[in-house]
Design a protein that fits this description.
225 residues; alpha/beta; Rossmann fold; five-stranded parallel β-sheet
Length: 225
């Protein structure tokens, strides 16, 4: 039986990584077999790509940036995601291709049709079962990023860039956008304000609604359809 692919997305500082750890631990307590990955990265090739993409000393043109993200994604899908789904695992990923749409199309201004075509080549038909799009006011996200200290190349892209990214993410949550982008699968907007526990409960509620056979099931089997 095939597993399920769940993606956490959002602009900088919304708390994706924290919530992914909490979701992974809670799912494991439910008896689910969990594979946890991130983008870019997750494989030796992907980790090298991640280093190149985030290193502040590199000046990477937008087309090259997009293709590097997709190269990491292609390796991750073949080496990790597809095998995990085949085993029946719950695959949880910190970012996936919705970030490419937000950062490279909306943020960098690349041609949408070209990016979508290249992404289709990289993903070879893999579609998330659900994407949880965490959302915070821009000022809160920026404060969280600043509090982390040193910023990577993408985080340093500037306020106007990050505002375009944030606006794009919110657009992606609309039913109209999802209808014309079936390759993205269902997308749920999650309020990321409040305590870590409060956000975790909202995330679990969205997952229970979208994938009840997994997140409302009892202890034990992690196989689902």
């Amino acid at each position: 039986m095939r597993g399920a692919l769940v993606v956490l997305e959002g602009a900088e500082g919304v708390g994706k990584t924290t919530q992914l750890r909490r979701l992974s631990a809670r799912a494991a307590r439910q008896g689910l077999a969990v594979t946890l990955v991130r983008e870019p990265g997750g494989t030796p090739v992907g980790d090298e790509v991640r280093r190149l993409l985030l290193e502040t000393s590199h000046a990477i043109v937008p087309r090259a940036e997009a293709l590097l993200f997709m190269a990491s994604r292609a390796q991750l899908i073949d080496d990790v995601i597809r095998p995990a789904l085949s085993r029946g695992d719950l695959v949880l990923t910190d970012r996936f291709f919705l970030s490419t749409y937000a950062y490279q199309i909306a943020g960098r201004g690349l041609d949408e049709a070209g990016v979508i075509a290249a992404n289709g080549f990289a993903t070879t038909g893999v579609v998330p079962d659900v994407t949880l799009l965490l959302d915070l006011p821009a000022t809160v996200g920026a404060e969280r990023v600043a509090a982390r200290g040193a910023q990577d190349r993408v985080e340093r892209a500037g306020d106007a860039f990050h505002e375009r990214v944030r606006a794009a993410f919110r657009q992606y949550a609309s039913p109209e956008w999802q209808q014309i982008h079936p390759e993205c699968g269902p997308i749920s907007l999650v309020d990321a304000a409040g305590s870590e526990l409060e956000v975790e409960e909202r995330i679990w509620g969205h997952l229970a609604a979208q994938l009840p056979e997994t997140f409302l099931s009892g202890q034990g089997s992690h196989k689902y359809g």
